[in-house]
Amino acid sequence: MEFLYIGIIIFLFCLAISDIIVGVSNDAVNFLNSAVGSKTAKFRNLIIIASIGVFLGASLSNGMMDIARHGIFQPQYFSFAEIVTICLAVMVTDVILLDAFNSRGLPTSTTVSLVFELLGGTVALAMIKNIQTDGALTFAQMINTDKALSVILGIFLSIAIAFVFGMVIQWIVRTIFTFNYKPRMKYLAGVFGGIAVTAIVYFLLIKGLKDSSFMTAEANAWIKEHTGMLVLCLFLGSSVIMQILHWCKVNILKIIVLMGTLSLAMAFAGNDLVNFVGVPLAGFSAWQDYSANGMGVGADNYLMGSLLEPAHTPMIFLILSGATMVFALATSRKARNVINTEVNLTNQNESEASFGTSATGRRLVQIANSFATWLEKVTPLRVRNWIDSRFNKDEAILVKGAAFDQMRAAVNLVVSSLLIALGTSLKLPLSTTFVTFTVAMGTSLMDRAWDRESAVGRVTGMMSVMGGWLLTAVIAFAVCFAIALVMHYGSFVAMILLSIVAMVIIIRSNIKFNKKAHEKEKNKTVFDQMMSSNDPDEVWSLLKNQVKDSTVKELDYVSNYYSNFIDCFVSENLKCLRRHYSTMHAEIDGYKSVRRKEILALKRTDPTVSVQASTWFHLEANNTSQLLYSLKRMSEPCKEHLENNFNPLPKDCAEEFAPASEAFLVLLNKTRAYVDDFNPAAEQQSKELIKDISAYKKEVAVLRKNNLERFNSESDTSNFNIYILYQTILQETQQMADNLKHLIRAYTYLSTVKGK
Questions:
Q1: CA distances from 261 to 41, 181, 426, 479 (A)
Q2: Dist. CA 249–CA 589, nearest whole Å
């Protein structure tokens, strides 16, 4: 029995490694977002700086794991076996939950997940013990609910405070410096740099290093007593240094952003380490106590009052944890996925609305627009004009490919650092994840990045992320509650099986994600080039190639789908039809996403070019999408027909339609070849192809007429449904042929539009 517990403790540490990897992948956005979004340095260099901060933060941490030992449950009321069950349930839940958020590119709070997982597992076993003792042990005795309530309070405080402060500070900074900040930096570099460096260092002392292993109680007390003097000396010294560096042509904003990244990384590793290894270390401490004192009592009877003692984490665990964090940061693709979500939502320019739109988002934007209209009316014209002159986005100094400038990046880091440090000193449970995200959203709003074209998408994205935060707490509690119950009643068998399931889920998730990421990278390259280019002619050239590639891809899909659909339907192969139909929605959504990207790129072309191309661009895209919708409209009733086991397509209809379907596939392939090998001089080719399509439409019209005559001439109504369905197939095929004709014409004109 004891060997099984040893195996569980070892597996807890294996899960801890996985948890660090998925946890760091999610939390990397906290300290990398500003530097990545502003392109302050190469991504590789940013990873190196952040890795140094993470390793130092983890290694210098004093390993305060008390929240995992007695922060949520009262260990003196739980046996060793029950503690092991809670620990394993928490780790299994945490790994799966965080990986799910990472795969979807959603930042969440690892602290929230840990607290509510511990709460869910504890409530499950506390409920059992309450029943077993006939109420002698109450929930109030066994559970510390104050911590959970403080976390919930932290969510709402973090969102409200960070968003408001982000907006206010960014408005002040932008009003002073404007988007063309370099001329103002000549006189104000020292002051701005001094404030920024002071805030970052203060944050590092108060939040990042106050609990480090080398920080004694006397040192912390001295810092607390002389905070005012330290802040003043820091401000004066850093102001002088920053002004001198600016005079020496050094980019002080770059220094501020890199310092902020390093300090946030250190604070994250030092303070959030418990979220990843706290539970396994609590389980290990419980095993040490049990193996030394409880063997004779038994795992089910030996109570774990020893966990009430403060944690003392061996340095080797801290160093290994730091090394694992660095590895995760350097290799995780999912970390980039989460970072990209926040960067896209705060982009100064338009970006793809990956979250789409929502009714709530639209309503909130309408309310905001109404308020803005009222504010504009009551603000004097002279004041309005002056403010507008300070927020001229055309003057923005952006590094090529950057989502926002380094001034906003610096403000993001400074405000986040100050708020987290202030919350720590005032004992307000502000979440690092929530603060950094909402500050970034607030500063982007004040920078007027949320224009009318993108506001709804950004608001929807912000609400999706915030909803995910609240959902994290609910899911973490519910899932861990259920898993703890199953493990308690299923004993070692359930523990082993659920642990294996967790690892399988993680492995499959990563394989699937890497495959999708590889496909996205191939499709993303051209779009990134278009959005980062400042040359309208280059954008137009890239866009034409992108339109060609996306059109060819969809024509290939339509041809393959149509061919297989007809074969499946005629042969009454329901399984085959379902398999092909299952790809339809993903294909339509994928093309919508591509089209949104192409529209964004079109806006970046020369105005005269975009005016010429706009009509043909939209006509080409609309006809391409209509091909997909026609497939959907014909295949959906066919699938229902087979599912209901209705009469098959009569032999004479099948034989009649076979040449027509083959002829349509030939037209599809010819259109595909025309688009792929387009030659502006081949005007006659397009005319002949359009002529062939027109002739084909007449042939299908004859088939439709024949089918109606067949239907009207038969007295037997048993084939009513199949004749109607056959008519639908003919009608949609004819419509698709018409779409091909318009697509060819639109693509021809679109491709002949030349750049300036």
A1: 11, 22, 23, 34
A2: 49
Helix (H) or strand (E) holding 602: helix 584-602
How far is 729 from 745, CA to CA, in rounded Å?
A: 25
The phi-psi region of residue 39 (left if phi > 0; otherwise alpha if psi is between -120 and 50; otherwise beta) is left
Place of tokens 């003392």: 312
CA 253, distance to chain mean position in Å, is 27
Rounded to the nearest 5 degrees, what angle is found at the Cα of 548, between the Cα atoms of 543 and 552?
Answer: 150
**Paired tokens of 94:** 């945490």
281 close to 68: Cβ distance less than 8 angstroms: yes
Q: Which two tokens stand for residue 215?
A: 């920080």
pTM of structure? 0.73
The alpha carbon torsion through 128, 134, 135, 141 (nearest 10 deg) reads: -60
Task: Specify the range with the lowest mean pLDDT, choosing from 478-492, 505-519, 638-652.
Answer: 505-519
In this structure, is residue 528 part of a structural domain?
Answer: no
Q: Are residues 395 and 501 in the same domain?
A: yes
- Using CA atoms, how far residue 392 sits from 169, 385, 448, 451, 527, in Å, is 18, 11, 9, 13, 26
Per-residue CA distances from 374 to 150, 321, 357, 647 (Å): 38, 54, 25, 64
Interval 230-255 mean pLDDT: 91
Claim to verify: residue 240 and residue 272 sit in the same structural domain: yes
Which of 474, 499, 521 terminates a domain? The answer is 521
Structure tokens at 305: 């009052």
What is the residue range of 126's domain? 2-521
Q: Which residue has the higher pLDDT, 71 or 300?
A: 300
Give the number of other Cβ atoms within 10 Å of residue 607's Cβ: 10
pLDDT at 352 over 80: no
Give which of 248, 234, 176 is closest to 203, Cα–Cα.
Answer: 234
Q: According to DSSP H, which parts of 402-535 are helical?
A: 406-425, 432-446, 455-532
Q: How far apart are CA 11 and CA 676, in angstroms?
A: 54
Is 267 within 8 Å of 432 (Cβ atoms)? yes
> Residue for token digits 């002073």?
176
Counting the structural domains of the chain, the total is: 2
**Amino acid present at 439:** V
Query: Which residues are CB-contacts of 245 (< 8 A; sequence separation ≥ 6)?
Result: 189, 193, 252, 255
Closest CA to 576 of 563, 590, 591: 563
Q: Is residue 682 packed enough to be buried (19+ CB in 10 Å), middle (13-18) or exposed (0-12)?
A: middle
If you ran DSSP here, which 8-state letter would residue 303 be given?
A: B
Distance CA 676, CA 685 (A): 13
Backbone conformation region of residue 755, classed left if phi is above 0, alpha if psi is from -120 to 50, else beta: beta
Nearest 10 degrees: CA dihedral of 314, 318, 324, 326? -160
Regarding whether 548 and 431 lie in a shared domain, the answer is no
CATH code of 728's domain: 1.20.58.220
Q: Which of 250, 235, 228 is nearest to 193 (CA)?
A: 235
Give me the sign of the Cα torsion angle 392, 398, 404, 407.
negative
Co-location of 645 and 497 in the same domain: no
End-to-end CA distance of the chain: 79
Do 558 and 515 share a structural domain? no
CA 132 to chain centre: 44
End position of a domain, from candidates 468, 494, 521? 521
Which residues, including other chains, have CB under 8 Å from residue 727's CB and lie 6 or more apart? 704, 707, 708, 711
Based on the fold, state whether residues 581 and 445 are members of the same structural domain: no
| Structure tokens belonging to residue 512 | 């699937």
For the segment 521-541, what is each residue's pLDDT rounded down to a tens digit? 655 667 777 877 778 888 888
**How far is it, in rounded angstroms, from Cα 541 to Cα 536?**
9
pLDDT value at 58 more than 90: no
CA distance 714 to 720: 9
Average pLDDT score over residue span 373-384: 86
Mean pLDDT along residues 536-548: 88
pLDDT category at 738 given cuts 50, 70, 90 is very high
Q: Residue 660 is encoded by which pair of tokens?
A: 């027509």
